[in-house]
Amino acid sequence: MGKLRLGHICEAVFWLALAAFLYIESFEFDRGIEIYKFGATGWPRALLLLVAVAAIGQFLFQFVAGDKATSGTVGAATDDGAEEAARQSGHSHFRWYFSTFCLLILPFLYMRAHDLVGMFLELDKEGIHSVKLIAAPVLLFVYLLLARGNHVGAILTLPLFFAALLEDLGFYSMAPLFIVGVTLLMGERRPQWIALTAALIMGALLFTFVSLLYVGLPTGNISPFYDLSHWIVTMIQ
Amino acid sequence: MDPFGNFINGTVTLFSDPLGILIFFGGVVGGMLFGAIPGVSMLTLAAILLPFTAHLSAEHGIMLFSVIYCTGVYGGAITAILFNIPGAPENAPTAFDGYPMTRNGQAGKAVGAAVMCSAIGGTVSAVIMMAATAPIANWAISAFGPPEIFALVFFGLAVAATVGARTLWKGWLSILLGLMIAVVGMDPVGGIERYDFDMPYLLAGIHFIPTILGFFAVSEIFVQAERKATGVYEAPKLSVNFPSVAELIAHKFAVVRSIVIGFFCGILPGIGATLAAFMGYNEAVRWSKDRKAFGTGKMEGVISSETANNAATGAAMIPLLALGLPGGALTAMMVGVFQMHDMEPGPLVFLNSPDLVWVVFAAMFFANLSILLVGFLETKTIINLLRIPFQFLAPLILLLATVGAYAVRGLVIDVVVMFIAGVAGFFLRRSGYSVAGIVLGLILGKIGEQTFAQAMQMLHFEWTGFFNRPIAALLIVAALLTVAGSIYSAFFRKDRQ
Fold this sequence. Notes:
By secondary structure, chain A is an all-alpha fold. Chain A is built from ten helices and no strands. Chain B is an all-alpha fold. Chain B has one domain (about 5-490). Chain B has helices at about 5-15, 20-35, 40-50, 60-85, 90-105, 105-145, 145-160, 170-185, 200-205, 210-230, 245-250, 250-265, 270-285, 300-325, 330-340, 345-350, 355-385, 390-410, 410-430, 435-460, 470-490; strands at about 185, 195. In chain B, a hairpin with a 6-residue loop joins strand 1 and strand 2 (about 195). Chain B is globular, with a radius of gyration of 21 Å.
């Protein structure tokens, strides 16, 4: 096995599987273009071939040299703290990756909740809103359960959850909760500092973007969050 | 009238108009601030301001954007140095050595070097731009067709693959991932939808602003959060000691070299300051006797990157104003400002609106000079951002990035894409891949494919046609030698780290 680790094999499998998947998908748009003989697939397929070559090159290099850096590269990624943080955290075992994957999938479950329920029930607009209002707290509860054993996974997932909820519940309702959540996950426990941070950040953002620059932030589309957002915008502007 | 006389006229026009002065200083401070605040960039400010330029004259609108461009390119260096978050892709190489300098307690020196070199690079570039717009534009029109631009993109990517990732292969995989992301959406020749997975959002392609915010700003927050969660986070060491004049004079050759590289990269349509910064940095490494010190906090890395990217700002205006071809995202937005005023950038602008051209040139010259003054004053304030504990800074950066991603097109899905890019960037970075390489691939992907298609049509699908054109041949040979050299050193040199 040379200097190979399981991670190296997973990495190679990932790139080759990605290249194979995208190659198969390229048949969806494999149509000729009269003035261009390579068609719409020529460029992406050439890139996918190079992805496969680079993935195999990387695999062979790891077989020979393990995790060493090549001398021809300037070591920014090796020195920007990301790899060092990964090594020191010990988050490189399968259980951690699986737990993180389970957390990361929750926001996408929320985004597709109405489709999943729609497979069994016919949903109108009100029904979709009801499904989302039920799915949000249920999935957040699952998130809190899973987050107890995976702090970093929780940090990675929270912004995705925030983004998933923006469309329906709006920036104005979700941003203060998001600030509190991030601050707590970063280790701050003093309630007065958390409240002050949330108030200052929200105040600065709303004043700069909504009041001064008239940037329309997401207001949500489910009542009462939508009504609350409009009330705040009216008050500020 | 001669260029000097035109410049004096432009200066008088600029500073005799109170609204013009207000817009000029607003652009200077706004560009620096938005460039320097982590999570947003000059592109965010430009995107927010674009609709409002309809209420300004064309002269004021274009001048505002050109000033934001000059000072924003510098401002992006501050976040690259202090937080490892390049304000724009052209600041990515600045982070390679700027951020390690911050971690070594030399933030002030790195920022000071960026201030001085951005001002020098930008000002010299503005002077050359004023003197040489017409002859250089004429040369570029005749010498640079699609084969040459494709060859230059290829050369740029070959160089970039050797920078930033743990191995050459990971460098190429990073760039190829960026190129594949750029494939999503309509194909540039036949308009055929690719990899849209029946999602209307993907028809227009994945926008580069949320992707850049995700790969740089969000992934950096995640990396620092992991360090904090596992108890190994160290706050950056604070210092406001700027470099001495002697230290800067010691790097005079790096400055001159980077000005030349920056200017010539900036002048080429679609290439702009990003490639300039990467090439400026890479040449600094290549010419150095102490190559291994790069990436660990070497001031020459910051100097080369920042001189080159600001030297490209003046040059980038030449294809825009002379040919109507934008060199990057911000100059593309300038085309939008022209169009909002029923004007088309191109040779006719010089004939029909000479006042506009020279007011813009004068504004760019003074904007670059003002980096020296405003840069030093503002930077001392911004460095104090480091005093804010990370647990309070992180939600601010994430929310600024959210607003920045959303403000571009008013789509929540852009925010989702940004956070997905952030998570992907987190996992890729901890495995030794280069997020700067991904972003460069993403930005150059569209123009690379487009010019390749045009070149092949021009050359009647004969590959050898590239080698009948001296500039294209030279660039392709240089790119192939770069690839071959890096493969050789990856497998056969013994000094692996």
